[in-house]
Amino acid sequence: MRAMGACVALCTCITAQASTGRYPGYGIDFGTAIQYDFSGLRASDQGNKVTTNGYFDITNDMHFRFNPNNEIWLSTEISPVTTTRPGERRWLGGTGLNVADLHWYHQGEEDTWRLGKFDVPFGRAQSAAPGLYTGDFVAPYALGGMIGGTYERRFSSYTLGTLAPSLSVYAADTSVLSRAYFRPSSQARRSDGGATNTGKPNNVAAVLNWRAPAALPYLEVQLGYMANHKGDTNAANPTAANEQSRTASVRYLIPFAPTTLLSPTLAARYVDLVPFVEYVRTHNENGVPGYNTSYLTTSLTLDTGRLAWGLTHTNRHISPAGSGSSTEYLTEASVVYHLTGLIDVGLSGGRSRQGGQTSNLVGMQLVLNGAF
Predict the structure, then answer these.
(1) Angle at the Cα of 38 (from 32 to 41), degrees rounded to 5?
(2) Distance (Å, whole) CA 254 – CA 263
(3) Rounded to the nearest 5°, which phi and psi values hold at 10?
């Protein structure tokens, strides 16, 4: 099955007609992943339960370019849209297609903006921390698929590097784009409640990215504040509150033998170490009054040519009003082997504790990436 998935993606790339480079024109970035997850759940009142899930995760980013600075960006993903139940063992189950992004994208020399359906640029653990499972663990504050717009302005100097403040306004997507296709799926509704589900762009995220000052050329810092209005209250959601989040993260690349040449990198003579730390504090998470959380993610990545080794730990401290606090966590070690310039093989394993239950996790992934 893995070989078949890779062949399908390769055939798609070979038969498609690439852009001529003229405008208007188009381009496609694609990724085809075949992943198998194993979870061994240990619960005191349920005994041990083994859950397995094998699936395709196929992403496509299509860019229709009007000129060098403006394009329409359409991103889709075919993946499971229903979660596995404890003890369930399935292969290619619950799969549907989601429209992740559909927006107008502009990138000039000093500014960038997006208008439509997009991911809010708040928090970096989903993209910066290695491993297969951290992205899902920090998803409550990494907002994807919002309707609205974001604007970023870049200021550069030799001594300070690049300062890039951005401002985003948005609301949760309750349009037809919120449905999953190729399987029965309902459209998101205002009555679902939750933070950002307001039907108008009155939710705001302000973020400052600082990169590459002269004294620390491999430094990346992010500071951000996000304020999300509560959704409607009704019989299903009788209480609601506004949500606020703050984030601070630092990522630094330490090259042992700096080079931009491809040959020493592939020969494993290029080595770098990348520590990453991110802290996020959220008040009234998902619009639940008094449900306060904090996330602390630390990771370390070691790149050695074709191999990338990673270790990530995320603590989620929960402080609900009127009851005792608790701590959930996810720890995973991972390795990615760059088989070719297009094909990666990944393995990730670790342990998670959520909702009072502890699980051992193992995941394997074969990825084909490309563009035309």
Answers:
(1) 145
(2) 19
(3) -65, -40
| pLDDT value for 357 | 85
Cα torsion angle, 124, 32, 72, 183, sign: negative
* 347: number of Cβ within 10 Å: 14
CA pair distance 269, 305, nearest whole angstrom:
6
Span 93-108, average pLDDT: 93
Residue 219 pLDDT > 80:
yes
Alpha-carbon dihedral sign for residues 169, 173, 177, 178: positive
Of the pLDDT bands very low, low, confident and very high (cuts 50, 70, 90), residue 103 is very high
Q: For the chain, list the strands marked E by DSSP.
A: 25-43, 47-67, 70-80, 89-91, 95-107, 111-118, 146-153, 155-157, 161-172, 203-211, 219-228, 243-252, 254-255, 271-283, 291-304, 307-320, 326-338, 343-354, 357-371
Q: What is the pLDDT of residue 171?
A: 96
pLDDT on residue 82: 86
pLDDT reported for residue 46: 60
Contacts 24+ apart (CB under 8 A), 158-163: 158/214, 159/213, 159/214, 159/215, 160/213, 160/214, 161/210, 161/211, 161/212, 161/213, 161/214, 161/217, 161/219, 162/209, 162/210, 162/211, 162/212, 163/208, 163/209, 163/210
- Gyration radius (Cα) of the chain, Å: 21
From the list 182, 186, 178, 177, the residue with the least C-alpha distance to 58 is 182
Q: How far apart are CA 113 and CA 104, in angstroms?
A: 8
- Among 174, 190, 180, which residue's Cα sits nearest to residue 82? 180
